[in-house]
Write a structure and sequence with these properties.
Layout (H helix, E strand, L loop, with lengths): L5 E4 L17 H15 L4 E6 L8 H13 L3 E7 L3 H14 L6 E3 L8 H6 L1 H6 L3 E4 L28 H7 L2 H16 L4 H11 L5 E2 L6 H8 L1 H4 L5 H11 L9
Parallel strand pairs: 1-2, 2-3, 3-4, 4-5, 5-6
Helix pairs in contact: 1-2, 2-3, 7-11
């Protein structure tokens, strides 16, 4: 059996008492977070180590040096970013090239049929120039693209949980629900679920390396994994129909 272990660093877990040393991407926190992850996971090294958010208070140069230190110690094999801008990723590469260090090789952005700009436009030149693997999160837009909210908020669903009002208010907009309903109709015609179709659409993008699935039940996971088969149904005609329904294709710079 082969598996890949990843962890991430930014938000500390000790609460406010020990901050600022227990949050962000300073050398101290990056190194300590890695050592603690190794202890918790009971492994000798991490295959992937993500900077979970950009840290506006720490120079990117310091973070690159810290990650390179962990690489040299054999504690991580590759490092990357999450929710970084294209400019910040390229600044990390500039620093790495200047000092002959190892730059970031993967990014963890949000990507789904509603959130497309970063993956499809902002990172486009990065794929071509230095290379970038992507581990996309929220392919179902917090569950909205599963179709389960088409007729309201079901009891026990994420949007029904206490403290998740902000998430519900962000995603459950009338125009979005209307689009998902039409997408559900298309999925039914293809003989699949809205969730499998939405995930298949994400992983069909050649710039998407892998997708994170947030299933809470075995049946959800089984259904989501059907996306691997649904990809074959995404002909140019079907892709055009999806675009016609969603109308979310981001505009690329003219020059």
């Amino acid at each position: 059996t082969s598996f890949t272990v990843s962890s991430k660093v930014y938000f500390g877990w000790r609460g406010k008492a020990n901050k600022p040393n227990q949050t962000g991407l300073s050398r101290k926190h990056v190194v300590e977070a890695c050592n603690e992850a190794l202890q918790r996971l009971q492994v000798d090294y991490l295959d992937l180590f993500f900077c979970h958010r950009p840290d506006k208070k720490t120079p990117i140069e310091e973070t690159v040096w810290a990650m390179n230190l962990l690489l040299q110690q054999g504690k991580i094999l590759y490092w990357g970013t999450s929710e970084w801008s294209g400019v910040e990723i390229m600044e990390a590469h500039r620093v790495a090239e200047k000092y002959r260090l190892v730059g970031p090789v993967m990014e963890q952005p949000q990507y789904n049929l509603f959130e497309r700009s970063k993956v499809e436009v902002e990172y486009k030149e990065i794929y071509k120039n230095v290379g970038l693997g992507t581990t996309i999160w929220s392919p179902l837009a917090a569950g909205l693209l599963s179709g389960k909210y088409n007729e309201g908020v079901p009891k026990g669903s994420r949007f029904a949980l206490e403290g998740f009002d902000w998430l519900r208010d962000r995603w459950m907009l009338d125009d979005r629900i209307k689009k998902v309903k039409k997408l559900s109709d298309l999925a039914a015609k293809l003989g699949t679920s809205t969730a499998a179709l939405s995930i298949a659409w994400c992983i069909k993008n050649p710039d998407v390396t892998t997708a994170i699935l947030g299933a809470t039940k075995k049946q959800q996971l089984t259904d989501n994994l059907k996306a691997l088969e649904v990809v074959n149904l995404l002909t140019p005609d079907v892709m055009e129909k999806i675009e016609g329904i969603m109308k979310t294709k981001p505009t690329a710079p003219e020059y």
